[in-house]
Amino acid sequence: MQAPKAPILTANGVEMPAVGCGTLFPDPDNAAHLVTAAIECGYRHIDTARKYGSERSVGEGIRASGIAREELFVTTKVTEEDAHEDDFARSVDTSLKALDLDYVDLLLIHWPQPKVPLAETLGALAKAKRQGLARHVGVSNFTVALLDEAVRLSPEPLVTNQIEYHAYLHQDKILEACRRHGLIVTAHVPLARGKLVGDPVIGEIAATKGKSPAQVALRWLVQQPGIAVVPRTTNPDNIAANIELFDFSLSDEEMDQISALRDNNIRVVDPAVRRPVWDIG
User: Fold this and answer.
1) Which residue in 3, 89, 124, 253 has a CA-CA distance of 20 to 30 Å to 146?
2) Are 43 and 82 in contact (CB under 8 A)?
3) What is the largest CA-CA distance in the chain?
4) Residues 137, 143, 145, CA angle at the centre, nearest 5°?
5) How far is 148 from 178, CA to CA, in rounded Å?
6) Is 52 a catalytic residue?
7) Please, what sign has the CA dihedral across residues 122, 129, 142, 181?
């Protein structure tokens, strides 16, 4: 098993590896080997959720790896269907049983739920932390207004907002809000579900670096301050490549070239049934 490969980001008491293994797999019931492969090649951050259906596989993969629990940073999320306090607590219990863990390192509200008072859900989130079921807490897919409200109402400090962020999407407003509150930004779908891999600008830079387009697109993210990434792939070779981001860097000019691609403004995670009113830019 290889040593950890990602640097550590800190915010409000958390120490989070800057690269995690995303686990929204097409076949979540049979994905334990992918989690084990990730740990064996140096990942120490595993990102899952009740909604993904992969928590049981994550637990199996962790056990198969033989790694000590304290060496891992495990994130899971409570779905918006469980935003009420009692439902939230049951969801956390179900997640821990599926993972076969006593606690997670980070527990997130997966999506905002406008039908339930945010204070109630945040109270349930804080209670899970105070009960020792989660070491840290945060939110996911929160807009600027929702994040400001969450920080104001949360009984426990939030450490991250996990949002869609990649080189095809402007997110300056929510990035600034996260930094204003001292939060880590965790970028999900950091490759825009593969759309960035074929981009000619990224491809040209990758050729000059001797790296893959995916590695360059991920490097663009982690080279920005306070950004973590949780790429997902079912290819073990790509799992290994996606964490090999810290033996090269992008020049200011290359960063600017990739940043200009955000004018595409492509959002790939936009579920009509639960999306908030997104910030533009």
Assistant:
1) 89
2) no
3) 54
4) 100
5) 9
6) yes
7) positive
Distance set, CA 274 to CA 14, 139, 190, 192 (Å): 28, 15, 20, 19
Separation in Å, CA 113 to CA 31, 195, 253: 29, 29, 41
Q: What are residue 53's phi and psi, to 5 degrees? A: 75, 15
CA gap 73, 259 in Å, rounded: 30
Kindly report the CATH number that applies to the domain delimited by 8-264.
3.20.20.100
Residue 280: the pLDDT is 87
Q: What are the residues whose beta carbons fall under 8 Å from the beta carbon of 275, sequence distance 6 or more?
A: 141
Catalytic entry in 52, 103, 165, 168? 52
| Predicted confidence (pLDDT) per residue in 106-128, tens digit | 999 999 999 999 999 999 999 99
- CA–CA dist 251, 227 (Å, integer): 18
Residues β-bridged to residue 138: 108
Helix (H), strand (E) at residue 136: strand 134-140
The pairing of beta strand 158-164 with beta strand 134-140: parallel
Give Cα separations from 110 to 81, 91, 248 (angstroms): 10, 12, 33
The pLDDT, as a whole number, for residue 154 is: 98
pLDDT of the residue at 4: 87
pLDDT above 90: residue 259:
yes
Partners of 188 in the beta sheet? 164
